[in-house]
Amino acid sequence: MAKTTLTFLLAGMLVVNGHAMAQEQDKQKDAHDHHDHSGHAATQNEHDHSGHDMDKHDHSGHSMSQQSGSAVDHAAEHGAAADHGHDHSIDHSQHDTQATEHGDLHHHHHMDHDHIMDHEGTMIMGQNLDKLPSSCKSISEEVEITVRAGRKYAAKFPGTAFAFDQQQWHVKPCAKVTWHFINEDDIRHQFMMHGLPKYLYKYGMFHLEVTGPKTVSGTIIVPGSDDTFLVHCDISHHMEKGMKAQLVVGKGGDDIPSIPGVTSYNINDTYQAENLPKASDKAEPNAVMRQITTFTNNNFRNYGMMAIGVLIGLICIPILRAIAFGRKGN
Amino acid sequence: MPNHIVIALLTVYTMLFAVSAQAASKLPETIKVDRAALTSEPMCDPKISPAWREAQEIEGVKIEASPGCSPDNPAWIAAAVKGTNHISMDTLMKTGLSPDAIIKTDDLDGDGDPDRIIIKLEIMELNGKSPDFPGIIPTFDIAPGIQPGAWVFAPKTSGMSTENFESVRANPLLRLPSPVIRVEVGDIVQIVLENTHYFPHSIHLHGVDHPFSHGEHGGQDGVPQTSEVELMPGGRRVYQFQPRQPGTMFYHCHVQTHTHLTMGLAGMIVIEENKPNNWLQTLNIGAGHVRHPSVAVREQFTQEYDLHYHAMDKELSDMVQKYNDPRLIARDMNQRYDITDATEDYYTLNGLSFPYTLRESLIVVEPDQKIKLRMLNSGGEMIAVHTHGHHATITHYDGVEHNPMAQIMRDVFDMAPAQRLDLKLETINDGKHSYGEGDWLIHDHREKGITTNGMAEGGSMSSIVYKSYLGEHGMPKVSHFGIDLSEFFTKEYYERRYPIWQDLDEWASLGSPAGQMGLDPATQTSLLNALYGLLIGLVIYFIFAKREGIKQSITATVSRLKSPKGSNE
Ligand SMILES: [Cu+2]
Ligand SMILES: [Cu+2]
């Protein structure tokens, strides 16, 4: 009799312990979730938007915070810009003429070979219409790809806020690709590609930027080897919250992480079921009834565990007995 | 035989007591933290060109000298005065602003300045979580190593959110606080909010004369319960008004205000008097020194400063660093955060805490000047700003001029949440207006206001510095008093890992004590226990080994005890 009680106790302890362990694990998960942000020096170096191997890009010209030493003669370049036929790239007709614009037609057309910007900030940077990458003998194909950007494309990816309409595109090596970037939101978005060869693309970058609803187009020639390039919008937290994609050239290279629907996130949030109100809760006849059922539900869980303990205990008795008798036998 | 054991026991005990007695007679040594072990930052950020401090003229815009360490980019000022539509591409490229960030047109009253002003604001997150790497992006430090998650209204920018592709540091236009906006009485102003953030937001123009509803743009008080629905991500909304009254006012997001305002969606908006040729600095990015003051201010004052006091809650800021999924951030902020249990942790002046306030928010003065200070408290509690060495006059409350005959001088300025005060600071050395030249502190006198997450010296404190107390890099010159501020420019200081008084004397009398020499108390106890165990074991062993002898002696003793009894019977 005493032996049986002991077995029950043991079994009970096992159950309790198991429960405690599960809780402990949850806690550890929580603790893990609180990242230590103190070691930023390290993360700055580790930071890599794409998972690509990027060597040092020279951003001296792109960084807009500092006074750049070289004052370019823009007046002269404005003239040059006029016959360059870049205006086809920026479609002014699509812009909705809101009352916000006051008919000031002072246009800035900045032309720096690979940097075109109009008075609304529509921008084409790093365009390449004719320079063949060294790994290409000729252009393999000429393709036009339309990319749409907007909040509504995030709808099919729960937990994101912004997205492109597609998350990856495939082209052949040495393809000449013309991108038609359609921003369907009323804010700025970017189509920014990284990791391109720097002898052709300043900073290794191709960049379209436009405040919607409006379209901007630009052309690049992709390198001759299989590779995968990051495409994203660099406005604060647009990439983090879904506006991320990849261009796969040929068979592609390494996948880029955290592209909605394509690749998994490097760092995942933890989700718990919420105690959300349900219509079925309302169907309960009255509050007292609900209390009783909740009570029985909770107790049933406890009694259930106890019953399992009893069962384990019962199974264990013969084993324990066998061990005890075995010893005596010896 | 048992005698030996007793002797052995006694010896061991004596030894043990000797050990513990020795530990108690000498306290641990002082360990001095080597300065080389600290992550030292230069006191004045060397990236900023000293040429920015000089008085200059860009695009025909006169920009006053600003001798502090980190003055505003002069190109920003030129763009803000002329509008991004009236400057050269070269200047525009130096600002990082979008070409449509500030559009100025139409001199409607023919007085020589533009009267239609369009200001485009985006909403940017600072120090938010990334799903790609264990860090935050884009980073903005309010003090060394202090990077609270924050949201700001930012002037519409062009290009990247970070300095460049390798850096995680925010583009300099994306910063706390939200920029100070300046427009003129009678201007037709459109503030265009382009919601680039992943949450809904709005703008409420607190104190600014604006119609509740506009014919074209609909309700525009910014309140989702009265005038308009929340502006969703990706959306644009126009707030149009033509103010009839001047004054120092306040704008902020009115969606879930108890969290959005604290997160940083709050800025100062100044309505200036209508004057001829009044080309205003439409945006004062980062607040602080106004290097192109309005005509009215120039007429009455030598200098002008915008002082925006704010407070942030770490618990709230942490939420955007805990999750990437906007649904989880929304859940924690809207349904789990309880502001009635909340405490403020970060106190900032113009978006920064001490010591960074010394870089940007010094009030640099000379004797016999008249300085206009516009102050806003966007924190959740009353603050009490004290000006050391000076009494200043309160000229305006909440943008409205106080009766000049009844204006008073004080040295503590209490400001309720959302309150604005305009002060006239006169550096007349008469023992009342000023006690003379110096590096005089200006700080919130609630003592927590000079802490950063509870660690002093931090918070919103700054200085009123006379030029004779200004060093070559625009930092206060106090080294001749033996003062060294460099310890504050280390993240270890705010991580609470630096014994702040260790350098006050040669031998670091108030430095950090080392751990216990030899054995710490816990190890000592466990060693003692082990020893006891050993002794008990020995005793048992002896009892076991000599059990025959013991048995015999016991029997002998018993029989000896018994025998007299027996004989008695
Ligand atoms: Cu975007
Ligand atoms: Cu908001």
Task: Describe what you observe in this structure.
By secondary structure, chain A is of the alpha+beta class. Chain A folds into 2 domains: 2-249, Cupredoxins -  blue copper proteins (Immunoglobulin-like); 280-329. Chain A contains 5 helices and 13 strands. Chain A has helices at residues 2-33, 40-46, 74-82, 279-283, 287-329; strands at 90-91, 110-111, 115-117, 123-125, 142-150, 163-164, 168-171, 176-183, 188-193, 206-211, 214-221, 227-232, 244-249. In chain A, a hairpin with a 3-residue loop joins β2 and β3. In chain A, α1 packs across α5. Chain B is of the alpha+beta class and 569 residues long. Chain B contains 12 helices and 31 strands. In chain B, the strands form 8 sheets. In chain B, strands 18, 19, 20, 22, 24, 25, 26 and 28 form an 8-stranded mixed β-sheet that branches. In chain B, strands 4, 5, 8, 10 and 14 form a 5-stranded mixed β-sheet that branches. In chain B, α1 runs antiparallel to α11 and α2 (74-82) crosses α3. Chain B is elongated, with a radius of gyration of 34 Å. Residues 565-569 of chain B have low confidence and may be disordered. Classes of the chains: A alpha+beta (330), B alpha+beta (569). At the A-B interface, α2 and β10 of A face α3, β5, β6, β7 and β10 of B. The structure holds copper (II) ion (2 copies). One copper (II) ion binds next to β9 of chain A.
Summarize the structure.
In chain A, strand 2 and strand 3 form a beta hairpin. Chain A has 330 residues and is of the alpha+beta class.
